[in-house]
Amino acid sequence: RKEVEQDPGPFNVPEGATVAFNCTYSNSASQSFFWYRQDCRKEPKLLMSVYSSGNEDGRFTAQLNRASQYISLLIRDSKLSDSATYLCVVGNNAGNMLTFGGGTRLMVKP
Amino acid sequence: NAGVTQTPKFRVLKTGQSMTLLCAQDMNHEYMYWYRQDPGMGLRLIHYSVGEGTTAKGEVPDGYNVSRLKKQNFLLGLESAAPSQTSVYFCASSYIRVRETQYFGPGTRLLVL
């Protein structure tokens, strides 16, 4: 079993739609959680951290469920520029390593 | 402020050849990392360094060596390239206090024939 699992997609949605991605992780001792964004043939960039209380950044909302070892990302009012691959990332308890999921590809269409 | 840079951007090697990938950062970061990214596999950590003169193995270290002689540089070496090492290699760096926010370089595409 992969340590961090994501549905690879692609998710094809129209502009303005709301879309949600999920991710599960296997190490219950994991301490930190993130979503990174990766555009085609580019490097990953941090999108947002994920906290137990949930957090929101504009149109993006991230949730963490430690009991179920589950992370989610919700994107509201999708824009064409949101088209990218979204990587679920989990940090180990020592804080010196990140484990990346395989990514979920989003395509927003006009 | 260039951030994280990688050299070269693209390289083709024959099986058995050696090469060194260079990563440089100008943000005074303590931590540096080398990853490889393969289709459907996500990024996998090869080696990392928590400071000048230190290195440690990641998830997939076999076939690679690293050195961190200067704080700003992290080198990844392939002594005898194999087709299985065909991949995109990303370098990243981070501050001590926010280690999980990693800043990535643009990547090196390596093809081993």
Helix content of chain B: under 10%
- Total DSSP E strands of chain A: 11
Class by SSE composition of chain A: mainly beta
- Radius of gyration of chain B over all CA atoms, rounded: 13 Å
Order of helices and strands of chain A: EEEEEEEEEEE
What Rg of chain A, in angstroms, do the CA atoms define? 13 Å
Order of helices and strands of chain B: EEEEEEEEEEE
- Oligomeric assembly: heterodimer
**What is the number of strand segments of chain B?**
11
Describe this structure in words.
- The complex is a heterodimer of chains A (110) and B (113).
- Chain A has 110 residues and is mostly beta strands.
- In chain A, 0% of the residues lie in helices and 55% in strands.
- In chain B, the strands form two sheets. In chain B, strands 2, 4, 5, 6, 9, 10 and 11 form a seven-stranded mixed beta sheet that branches. In chain B, strands 1-3-8-7 form a four-stranded antiparallel beta sheet, with no helix packed on it.
- Classes of the chains: A mainly beta (110), B mainly beta (113).
- Chains A and B meet through strand 5, strand 9 and strand 10 of A and strand 5 of B.
List the helices and strands and how they pair.
The complex is a heterodimer of chains A (110) and B (113).
Chain A: E1 4-6, E2 11-14, E3 19-25, E4 32-38, E5 44-50, E6 55-57, E7 60-65, E8 70-75, E9 84-91, E10 98-100, E11 104-109
Parallel strand pairs in A: 2-11
Antiparallel strand pairs in A: 1-3, 3-8, 4-5, 4-9, 6-7, 7-8, 9-10, 9-11
Chain B: E1 4-7, E2 10-13, E3 19-25, E4 31-38, E5 42-49, E6 56-57, E7 65-67, E8 73-78, E9 87-94, E10 103-104, E11 108-112
Parallel strand pairs in B: 2-11
Antiparallel strand pairs in B: 1-3, 3-8, 4-5, 4-9, 5-6, 7-8, 9-10, 9-11
State the main characteristics.
heterodimer; A: 110 residues; mainly beta; 6-stranded mixed β-sheet; 5-stranded antiparallel β-sheet; 11 strands; globular; B: 113 residues; 7-stranded mixed β-sheet; 4-stranded antiparallel β-sheet; 50% strand
